[in-house]
Design goal:
- The chain is of the alpha+beta class and 278 residues long.
- It has two domains: 146 residues, Jelly Rolls, CATH 2.60.120; 121 residues, Orthogonal Bundle (Arc Repressor Mutant, subunit A).
- Helix 5 packs across helix 7.
- The longest helix is centred in the C-terminal third of the chain and has 16 residues.
Length: 278
């Protein structure tokens, strides 16, 4: 994967740009929640995204789509080669470019031409004709700067809250957070719905889950009970239930599926959000 970090004006909203051109070494995968929103421009084959309740039912993503903030895994199947470029928005960043409450995209994958009716294909065409990867990233920055609407101080409040939740590994009390900011929990929740798409409590759960994933060291024996204790889950059963809700697997199956494909090449923090599903 090739990464590019945005210019100062965009860095408040965007974590990075990325580009991949490869053959995924398995048929189907679970893509886990990652506390980000992704805009994907595809130049390779399409992707099937399967329904959780009906394994025969799927939607086909072909050209450009927005993946809203997810609180559950996506069951994804690339049809052939993968060749795409993407924008990884910070969890609160997407509203400033779309002007649509982030809750409208939450747990959804939306074709971009349904949102930017007249512009989506022009974006794809401009990126397709950019001669190099660096030129594509530069083109993306230019296009995004044209779409950016700077926000008022409410975004400052949301970003402070998100930084606080992330720094405390999702274990900070929402009441304590609201008191620290000096606003009611209800008002904080309404701003989160607009800018992030989920409640502060749900975002705290997601941050805690991210820290769990990045704590796991596949090169050493894993003590799941110790991890559950470290991250303040009520007990092992609560941890297992939460882990399965986000991944579709038990903790041991999560590791077994990854090791079955990557073996001894797995490293701590490496590709933790992508799990081969058989």
């Amino acid at each position: 994967m090739r990464l590019h970090f945005p210019q100062a004006r965009l860095s408040r909203y965007i974590q990075c740009f990325w580009q991949v051109d490869l053959q995924i070494p398995y048929r189907r995968e679970h893509i886990l929640p990652s506390c980000t929103v992704e805009l994907i421009i595809n130049f390779g084959s399409g992707f099937r995204v399967y329904d959780h309740d009906d394994p025969q039912k799927f939607d086909l993503n072909r050209r450009m789509w927005l993946v809203g903030l997810q609180t559950e895994h996506i069951i994804n199947e690339p049809i052939a080669e993968t060749n795409m470029i993407g924008i990884r928005f910070k969890p609160e960043g997407v509203y400033s470019f779309f002007g649509i409450p982030a809750s409208e995209f939450q747990n959804r994958i939306v074709e971009l031409d349904a949102v930017w009716v007249s512009e989506a294909e022009l974006w794809r065409e401009a990126l397709y004709h950019a001669p190099t990867i660096d030129a594509k990233f530069e083109t993306l920055e230019q296009l995004l700067c044209r779409k950016l609407t700077d926000n008022n101080g409410q975004l400052d409040v949301v970003q402070f809250a998100l930084r606080s939740l992330a720094a405390d590994k999702g274990m900070l009390s929402i009441k304590a957070l609201s008191d620290d900011i000096g606003i009611s929990q209800k008002h904080l929740a309404s701003q989160f719905k607009k800018y992030v798409g989920v409640s502060p409590k749900t975002m705290a759960r997601l941050y805690r889950f991210q820290h769990v994933l990045h704590t796991i060291d596949p090169t050493r024996p894993i003590d799941w009970a110790q991890i559950a204790y470290e991250f303040n889950y009520y007990d092992q059963s609560h941890f297992n239930k939460e882990f399965a809700a986000f991944t579709g697997f038990s903790p041991t199956q999560y590791m077994a599926n990854r090791r079955a494909v990557y073996g001894d090449s797995l490293c701590k923090g490496d590709g933790v959000h992508f799990v081969p599903a058989g």
